[in-house]
Amino acid sequence: MSPKKLKIMVLDDEPIVCKRLQPALEKLGYEVDTFTQSLEALHRIRDFDYDIIITDLKMKGVDGMRFLQEAKKRRPETEVIVITGFATLETAKESFQKGVFDFIAKPFKLSEIQEVVAKAAAKIQAQSG
Amino acid sequence: MADLLEMLKRLWGRIRRPKPEAAPFPEIFEQFQTLLQDHQQVMELIADLGEKSGGEYIFDRKYLVDFTNTLHTLLLRMVNSLNLMADKRYMDLYTSLDRIFQPMEAELRGRLLLSEEMPLVIGLSALPLDHPELTGGKANNLGRISQSLKLPVPNGFVITTRAYRKFLEVNRLEERIHARLEAWTAGELDTEQTSRQIQYSILAGLPPKEVAAEIRRQAARDEMYWAVRSSAYGEDGELTFAGLHETRLQVPSRKILSAYKEVLASLYSSQALIYRQRMGLLGEEAAMAVLCQETIASRTAGVIHTLDLSAPEANCLVIYASWGWGRTVVEGRAQVDRLVVEKDPPFRVSAAEIARKEIMVRPKPGGGEEEIAVPPEQQILPSLADEDVSTLVKWALSLERYFKRPQEIEWAQDDAGALWILQSRSMNIPRMTMALHGNIAEITSRYPVLIKDVGTVAHAGVGSGPVCRVDSDAKLELFPEGGVLVIKYTAPWLTPIVPKASAIVSERGSAAGHLATIAREFRVPTLVGVEGAYDRLPEGDEVTVDTKQRVIYAGRIKELLQYELVQAPAFEETQEFRQLRRLLKRIAPLHLIDPEASNFTPQGCESVHDVIRFIHEKAVNELMDLPRFLKRFKGVQIYTLSSDVPIGLKILDLEGGIDPQVQGNRVTAEHIRSLPLKALWEGVSAPGVWSTEPIPVDFKGMMSSLTKTWAESPGTMGYTGFNLAVVSRVYMNLHLRLGYHLNLVDARMHPEPQHNHIYFRFVGGVTDMTRRSRRAQLLAHILSKFHFKVDVKGDLVVARVLHLSQEEMHLRLEVLGQLIGFTRQLDIQLKSDADIPQFMESFFQQHSPDRETPSA
User: Fold this and answer.
1) Do residue A106 and residue B58 have CB atoms under 8 angstroms apart?
2) Which of B34, B101, B402, B762 is deepest in the core (most CB within 10 A)?
3) What is the pTM of this model?
4) Is the pLDDT of residue B646 over 80?
């Protein structure tokens, strides 16, 4: 882990996902903020930089695809990881076209997401170092 | 499959059409194949759901909804297939499905509470767990403490929230309450008025007849006194309503009804109203369950905090104790004894402050309670003996391990000296306490890692203690409270020590296995499939097992343990996990084991597992039902295999499976042209496999039990089925029922490897589950050495291998044949897990063909 803590945003309208991901990632030494409302998350990224964003796709209000597009536009170096219970080849393809780092179908294992986050973190650190 | 179908069609051309209502054989066979695949898929889904309850997966409600829908669809298809095979003789199964699925679907829509299925009043010992919205948080916790942890809890019963709703309904209170609350929020009524008016109408209400009758039945004994407590939904959960609602102590049986109303009314006390308003809960329907428990006339009572709030970093628990009833302690009205005990073994008492205890509360003769002076000589004596302290510490730690949170525990000791748990709730910990830990990732990185990123998580969590390796029954007794159980196999005989373990690490076994299920029930962090754990975790060494990260550290990382207790939410207590466990309860348990039992009927099916077990059994019967079969196949050649091996095997040759020169319907092994059957039979009839030679003494018991099974059990010999192989030159579908074992082999040996497969399924057995699962483990080991992908689910073994050459397939079918012979003996011979490697060894020595070196 680098001396600087990486900042992660988790956005999922199912509170259980946030509730479980937060401590699992904090334990690995990341700083984690969670959101269940995409609109709030959208406001947040206007004035706060996250290194990694983990987002659901299908949400009320601003949907995940739009959110991640916005996030990428504001800060292209942010790595986005998509988690979704509606995983189709199309959504996966579309996500990758929009530059997401990885795409994980729900339900997933804690170790799976921890691994992907570690990879994203390694990439970020390689680029910044 | 296409060429098989072609063949079946051709075969069909040779068969005279039976009566119109009987389905043609190709259709039946196809249904049967589909049914088997569906059965397989359902088994896998059930195993998946079990694994999800272990906390390693992140899932949401949508997953549960999708899961239930998928399962329902599959089950409908299976019922359909069976009815197509069996001329619609199992239409009742549709009703069984409705009966099982409707509550699950209601559950997922959040409507279960309205259902008549839920009790109005229920005894604590029969309390449905995971239904805090029915029984309230307090009662739900007590149910777990007595049913899961088996700690002594005073007898009692719960008047559920359904009874509360009914109370409102019969007294027409809902609207009245709603109107008052609206007036209050609109500022038209003040808090006191609102509270008084609502409480008055509740107290004036009459309990519904059936509720009153049930309460009277539960509290039948007259001389009894009761504690009548609120158990509101949300109480003792994430929100704490502590102290907001009424408790009535020392209530005589005849006054329970009025005490019940008083406790209900306290849901609308002004403090409760203000609290709910502040928490934003006013819009939600309030509901109150009420817990009635026999009063313990305690000589000593008190409270335990498993976290010392005055020194959180010290890793100690605190016991408060005083003479008489616990009120003195709970209300903090007088001086009490305070013992600080280290939470690490050997649980040393690090401070014992014995106070001068001048007053105590005791039951007043004739009801109620009174405060009396403690006799002077007793005032300065410790109120708890040393051995009672140890018992309480043990209980407190197991409660904390189970609820994954520091606990506040109320306990009592009766006049006879017996200890009781009255309540346990999660402590409310100020957030500042948590800041002490610093960076947990940094702290854990200082500890040596013994094992990392190996194994599968069966239950997520963190536990620490001395390594205790258990490989025999003798070591069960010695297992220490809070030890880390390290084992080679996840054997079911380990079940009794699971609740004592702080973590479990197993070299073998799957997250879907029996022990994993038990570990989840007791919420013990468990990691399976950790190759080499036995050697890398030395006996007696302190280790910390973090199955959330799949790391095992040397040493006891107190900071991590505390971090987990205080910081990480206990996933077990989330709504989603409760819902999942409730679904599991309607899906996974298998009640219908014995096909000959009187409840082996569609009506007897209580779970999804029961339904598929029933369908599978009946589908096999259908296919194997001789008279029906012969009728259908009038004019079709069915061969009988003559052999030294006493299996009455019938062979249906689709094409090219039997020597065309054969006359009549008796064939011998030499006449078999079907490649898969030939290979398998070479294995079955190999010397020593179907042992007819003299057998060791140890063996005799087994053989006698085997012959007994064959000769005496109506279930076996009376079974109208027979052993059938449907074959062609390159294909075989074989059902072999030996005793209670059912072997199914489906195999193809085509010249082109990509068309080839072997599917082997093995289920059943005469012995107890422990031995059956040992046998399943053994089969799995041997088969995996031959590159089969093996899944073990309880006593079911499914092994598959794909796309190998004819020669490779031949070898494997031969091994299967040998195993089939071999397994007849296994249940009885496998006495302990230590026998497993020995048997493997002997199997490989005896049966492994020279040309094959099984992979390690």
Assistant:
1) yes
2) B762
3) 0.73
4) no
